[in-house]
Structures
1.
Amino acid sequence: MFKKFDEKEDVTGATQLKSSVQKGIRKKLIENYPYLEPHLEEILPKKENFKVDKGAIKFILNGSSIMCPGLTSPGAKLTPQVPKDTVVAVMAEGKEHALAIGLMSMSSEEIQSINKGNGIESLHYLNDGLWHLAEKPLN
């Protein structure tokens, strides 16, 4: 049902976020997902710096939502006139198949103009529980 995906993605060309931006992301995650706080250090260790652009692929493959700056960065392609609450496919540069399915947290126009916060909430991604469920034969 699902296409095989090569997880050995080349993640060159990533840039590091400023520590103040990293703190802001952690703070916003805790505001939006308070039950995540005890596990945040495990998910986003303070000792490791956030990287964006192609480096975000590994985070998306772990179920992270896609932030607006990643959708508006150079090289990103955001389909115009997509309304909020639309289910969308999340594609990686150079890949034929989607690596995630998400729900638009705001319209594509809002993502372009606001350019802050969560743009797409991840609903399903490669190698998640649904993926593994689909690998099992139906009896």
Note: Strands lie at 15-16, 51-52, 66-67, 87-90, 100-104, 118-125.
2.
Amino acid sequence: MALIGVVFASILLLVLLVAYFRLNTFIAFLIVCLFMGLALNVVREPAQRMSIADITQSIQTGIGKTLGSLVIIIVFGSMLGKLVAESGAAQRIANGLMQVFGRKYVQWSLMLTGFIVGIPLFYNIGFVLMVPLIFTVAARTKLPAVYLGIPMLASLSVTHGYLPPHPSPTALVGAFHANMGLTLIYGLLVAIPAIVLAGPVFSRFLRKYTQEPAQLFTTAALPDDQLPGLATSILAALLPVLLLASTSLLKLKAAPDSALYNIVSWLGDPVIVMLLAVLNGAYVLGIRRGLPIKKVMGIMEDAIRDVSVIILIIGGSGALTQMLLDSKVSDVIKDGLGSMHMNPLILAWSIAALIRVSVGSATVAGLTAAGIVAPLVAGTTVHPSLMVLATGAGSLMFSHVNDGGFWMFKEYFNLSVKDTFKTWSIMETIVSVVGLIGCLILNIFI
């Protein structure tokens, strides 16, 4: 029990450092790792204690192991998302879908735009770049900005929490040893009802929020003659999904060790998928349209700066996970959680949701929960891809005042704190709960 007490004290310390003292999350993770290692030494027998060198080595190993397999995918994903946004591809997708759906179903067009663009686009960047598009559509249609914005932002939130190649789901795939392609396929099945219910269905009750959006955040749209084609834009944004999903399905059909199986496995490797997607995006969205290669490379360099903070957070979470493994506490956690006889999906969702409400960061919540729950999965029949999705869904639970996204939505849409709770926070809660329900349903058939 003393070991479990140290783990809970460490998680509480992480919450306090991040949520109350506003300490940099990466630094907070390192402090918590050191605290855990030293505190465990106090309650353990001398033969089981870790030296300070062992503790720091564990931190370095955890950061290296976690980022070694993820940093390429995360950086490439950020580059592709930046290209889609800066080239005007996102605007073209929105314009094209609005023409298809018409004014009556404009919410659905924005929802689909958020989903398509949200797959490659890092969440915070997607929020900043897509919200002005919502304001443009609101001014054109004379509909409330909140009513139009919630469906698109629900899509961005779901892709951020559920679907690779976003940083948190990608890291969770590694933590639970899941297949990225299958996780993406199952994630799409879970994402669709979550987005529909949290988006167009929920926003039916939001027509009364007629506040004018903050003028500070309105930006001029690019002229239509400067935008890439619709088909080109959609293909560039969705190429990672198409490659990951198609190669995963082909591998199920191909004979093991056959030439086709080996080729498909190579093409379906996430690093190769993201490299091909970035090269395709750089060419069709930039170079082919006459942009100087220096400009295209500049967009990619900006993308690296955008995602640097999240890379450090993921590295810090990897250090905490490694500390749990090296200190053998993970075995104690596995035995303790196993005796609870709780469905692992519900357990992972609950822990992630609790940390999310406490800390505010979806990424921190998901990765910390995975470090706690992952040891339990090896002894169960639950599909690891569903564990990724359930944990990701829990990490989106009830965004409130300790989450930057809460304040971004409030300021951009010019709402009071009370109205932000009644719109944004409820939308995030619906996304989270529906995601868990979807995982439980899929678990019956998988």
Note: Residues 52-86 form the longest helix (35 residues).
